[in-house]
UniProtKB/TrEMBL annotation:
Organism of origin: Penicillium nalgiovense
Gene3D superfamilies: Hotdog Thioesterase
InterPro entries: HotDog_dom_sf (IPR029069), PTE-AB_protein (IPR052061), Thioestr_dom (IPR006683)
SUPFAM superfamilies, alphabetized: Thioesterase/thiol ester dehydrase-isomerase
Name of the featured protein: Thioesterase domain-containing protein
Residue spans of biased composition, Polar residues class: 48-69
Chain segments carrying region Disordered: 33-75
Entries under PANTHER family matching the protein: THIOESTERASE DOMAIN-CONTAINING PROTEIN-RELATED (PTHR47260:SF2), UPF0644 PROTEIN PB2B4.06 (PTHR47260)
Thioesterase domain residues: 167-234
One Pfam assignment: 4HBT
Length: 286
């Protein structure tokens, strides 16, 4: 009886090791694009992990070049932000859109425990606090709730350390960022300025790539008493990070446009927010 048991264990161990040696995380991804050289496949080809090399963000080998400080990296990205056309337009429309950095307004003792402002912040993750532009203007679609309608445009960068499958940003992170921008968007709909997520639905349209700048647009579409419905879409710009020696001068400005050929709308979402009855007792963080 023991001999049979030992033989079974050896066979199981052999099959397991064989499967481990032949498994390649890139193979399942590659199969997603076998139906032809679609635009999506071309755009995302560079994100596929090499069959012979580990993705750079999984490598534990230190670079031979002198690493940039977090402050220097953030400064480069902040400078790059000012070159994005949508940002330039929003800043010129300061009478309609108000620029904010809500996570920087959170007191440090609280911010360190905040998911987006603390846990997800830093080099390789969210390299800088998201920029947000809040509008409370009127629109025909929101005529009956025009005084409480709002929209938010958020710009942020997602680094390489927030992936799920190698080479692709974790879908759960996109849901979190939608939720964060939605909460800011519906703040104008409630007297307390606070809303809690009752329902959030995200439709993932294309794989999201790391090391890209993202633009998230949201809009409050309906308000009824303590309820507010909001919708949004998220797009990444095709430009990767500038090199360490660059001065953030982008040679091809089309790479910073949402309507450029390489820009990809990765997800759309809808949510219902409710102003809690105990809003007055909640800690104000912004």
């Amino acid at each position: 009886m023991s001999n049979i048991s030992q033989t079974a264990r050896r066979l199981f161990r052999s099959q397991t090791l064989s499967a481990f040696r032949t498994y390649s995380p890139a193979a399942p991804i590659a199969r997603l694009h076998q139906q032809g050289p679609t635009r999506s496949a071309v755009v995302h080809d560079q994100a596929l992990p090499s069959q012979t090399e580990s993705p750079s963000f999984l490598s534990h080998t230190k670079s031979q070049s002198t690493p940039q400080s977090p402050h220097h990296e953030s400064t480069n990205l902040d400078t790059l932000i000012s070159q994005i056309p949508v940002v330039q337009n929003l800043r010129e429309s300061h009478s309609t859109y108000r620029e904010t950095r809500p996570h920087l307004a959170i007191p440090p003792p609280i911010r360190q425990h905040h998911f987006v402002g603390g846990s997800l912040a830093g080099p390789g993750k969210l390299a800088f606090a998201p920029y947000m532009w809040l509008s409370t203007g009127k629109s025909e679609a929101q005529a009956e709730n025009a005084d409480r309608a709002s929209s938010v445009v958020s710009v942020f960068h997602i680094g390489q350390n927030l992936c799920g499958h190698p080479g692709f940003v974790h879908g759960g992170l996109l849901s979190v960022l939608f939720d964060e921008a939605f909460a800011r968007c519906v703040s104008a709909a409630f007297p307390s300025g606070l809303g809690m997520t009752a329902n959030l639905n995200v439709d993932f349209r294309k794989p999201a790539l790391p090391d890209r700048m993202y633009v998230l647009r949201t809009e409050t579409v309906k308000v009824e008493g303590r309820k507010a419905w909001v919708e949004g879409r998220m797009t990444y710009l095709p430009l990767a990070l500038p090199s360490a020696d660059s001065h953030s001068i982008v040679a091809d400005s089309s790479l910073l446009r949402e309507d450029s050929e390489g820009a990809v709308m990765v997800a759309e979402a809808k949510a219902l927010f409710i102003e809690p009855k105990f809003a007055d007792s909640m800690v104000k963080i912004y």
